[in-house]
Specification:
alpha+beta, Double Stranded RNA Binding Domain, DNA polymerase, domain 1, hpI Integrase, Chain A, 3-stranded antiparallel beta sheet
């Protein structure tokens, strides 16, 4: 028994030594020229091989040790799966192995789960989550992964999150894109592409059939202006500064979470999508500071926003009627956020053809032309996407205090009448 055990250990060491032996890192061109039958080490990741069959078919194989067993894990056929993609998949498998997870069993479990979900119609949100899970190993940029999820949560899920992928229509896609197509052209263009990618993936997987309602060429290009043209369209000039005190009175009288979210947007002057995804864990009511995570702010570090007294009052009013265990500040229900379209609807009911972010231009007009604050301080407060990562605009503790002073003055100006009006009681979020 002892000799058998020693022999087994020796064999394992030999296998590990062979697998650990570093192969030459082949280029994509060199890999394409591998046509002889057998296993060809391609380098880049230990144990990664291109397997060529007698018929000439080629596929990727990763040799790994799982416990005492040597296993072969298929990573897809060549050239459908490129050399770079095969290496990325191999690294991900080894990462799972390092964490004590069998990557082959994990993949089998995922596939079993997906097949089980196919019994019931797959919703768009389920499909998007599954798609992101299959692709995230290719997205090395953490910020990119976060933006993929956050844009869908903010704009798509409120409209089609619970819709079966087979039933997603062109009209629904347009209802998502139109409110932001000209005001947030870059975000809208990326969002369209992400919806298209998810629906394409479900078509290939057999969960839906027919044309993709989010396809641009030959479809949405006939219904929407080109993305480049959309960026050139003249945006609304914002609401007149002098009309703001009266408007805020009308807004305060409207019940519902959507009205409070819009009020908070205007008081903080930050992008509306930040407000819609705000979480209670990000807010320090005692210090009067809201800290937006770096990934959602698309910054290298968290972004601190000073809260005026009226902004804090809005938050406290929301605490009174939110469902238990709700993490979102302005929640449609326990698990989903409001959409920008709902905020636009509030404005329409107040007889204004504006978007929530148009009030950021109103704030800029007041801060620069009326209150005479420095342009740099205004740019920091607006958290402009175009200027967000400029080193000269990185906020510090001194500027936080200066911004607090400015936001308090903005609060006093626009809320001079509205602050005396009690928050209306509402049972619904919109």
């Amino acid at each position: 028994m002892e000799l058998r055990s020693l022999a087994k250990s020796a064999a394992q060491l030999v296998v590990k030594a062979i697998m650990a032996r570093k192969a030459k890192d082949l280029t994509a061109l060199e890999v394409s020229r591998l046509t002889c039958q057998g296993h060809h080490a391609v380098g880049g990741v230990a144990g990664l091989y291109l397997y060529v069959t007698g018929s000439g078919a080629r596929s990727w194989v990763l040799r790994i040790m799982i416990g005492d067993r040597r296993r072969h894990m298929g990573l897809g056929s060549f050239p459908e799966v490129t050399l770079a993609q095969a290496r990325s998949k191999a690294r991900e498998a080894k990462d799972w192995l390092d964490q004590g997870v069998d990557p082959i069993e994990r993949r089998t479990a995922l596939m079993t789960s997906l097949k089980a979900q196919q019994v019931l119609p797959m919703t768009f949100e389920q499909a998007a989550n599954a798609y992101i899970a299959t692709r995230e190993s290719e997205w090395k940029n953490l910020k990119h992964r976060s933006q993929w999820s956050s844009t869908l949560k903010t704009y798509a899920y409120p409209h089609i999150g619970n819709t079966a992928v087979q039933d997603v229509s062109t009209e629904q896609v347009l209802s998502i894109l139109k409110p932001i197509w000209t005001t947030k052209a870059e975000t809208a263009s990326r969002l369209r592409g992400r919806i298209e990618a998810v629906l394409d993936w479900t078509t290939i997987g057999g969960q839906r059939s027919g044309d993709n309602p989010a396809r641009w060429r030959g479809h949405l290009d006939a219904l929407l202006p080109r993305p480049s043209k959309a960026r050139e369209i003249q945006l609304h000039g914002g609401h007149p500064v002098t009309n703001m005190p009266e408007f805020m009175c009308n807004l305060r009288r409207r019940p519902g979470t959507a009205a409070r979210a819009l009020e908070f947007c205007i008081l903080t002057a930050v992008p509306s999508d930040w407000v819609l995804m705000a979480r209670w864990g990000e807010i320090d009511l005692r210090a009067g500071v809201w800290t937006v995570p770096a990934e959602r702010a698309a910054l290298d570090e968290p972004y601190r926003i000073p809260l005026s007294s009226s902004a804090i009052s809005v938050l406290k009013s929301e605490v009174l009627h939110i469902p238990p265990d709700t993490h979102l500040v302005f929640a449609k229900d326990k698990e989903s956020s409001l959409s920008e379209a709902i905020l636009v609807d509030v404005l329409k009911r107040l007889s204004l053809e504006l978007y929530p972010d148009d009030f950021r231009r109103t704030f800029r007009d007041w801060a620069v032309n009326k209150a005479r604050y420095p342009q740099k301080l205004v740019d920091i407060s607006l958290a402009s996407a175009a200027k967000r990562n400029e080193k000269s605009l990185k906020p510090d503790d001194v500027e936080l205090g200066q911004r607090r002073e400015m936001m308090n003055e903005w609060d006093q100006f626009i809320m001079q009448k509205a602050s005396k009006i009690a928050f209306p009681f509402a049972l619904r979020a919109f």
